[in-house]
Amino acid sequence: xxxxxxxxxxxxxxxxxxxxxxxxxxxxxxxxxxxxxxxxxxxxxxxxxxxxxxxxxxxxxxxxxxxxxxxxxxxxxxxxxxxxxxxxxxxxxxxxxxxxxxxxxxxxxxxxxxxxxxxxxxxxxxxxxxxxxxxxxxxxxxxxxxxxxxxxxxxxxxxxxxxxxxxxxxxxxxxxxxxxxxxxxx
Length: 186
Known about the structure:
The protein is mainly α. Helix content is 61%, strand content 3%.
């Protein structure tokens, strides 16, 4: 049952269910790539297939919107991405968590920077394993969540030419500097 001229798919509607099938199919078609590679298909065929799959993915996602309508697609986004809001970083973090986050942020960068020289520094150390590199990447990404939301503002300030950071010293609600974007210089 649709309310007051609302178009689109409701959760129990066949249009919503068909849209969900198309949505899953839009991403499931990418599984053809490793299957074709395992079948030892030529590189040019794989390249053509990846282009076809890329375009097909976009066309199928547009079909999802067309089949479900705007309300159905909004509901799909809420279901698919609603759990992500729980993963959002805390706005303010304590000094211990901040220090741990900085270590988690810096150590993977340092090891990546020193990796080309590790044979000279410590020849017995075998760090050329994909598992260690994956662990390093996971720790690096996790550091952003440990460091909190204000860290994102600080990183963003690096790329905004006119950005300035102001410390709100006496304000107990704000424990870290605040980004003041596009502040004119006096």
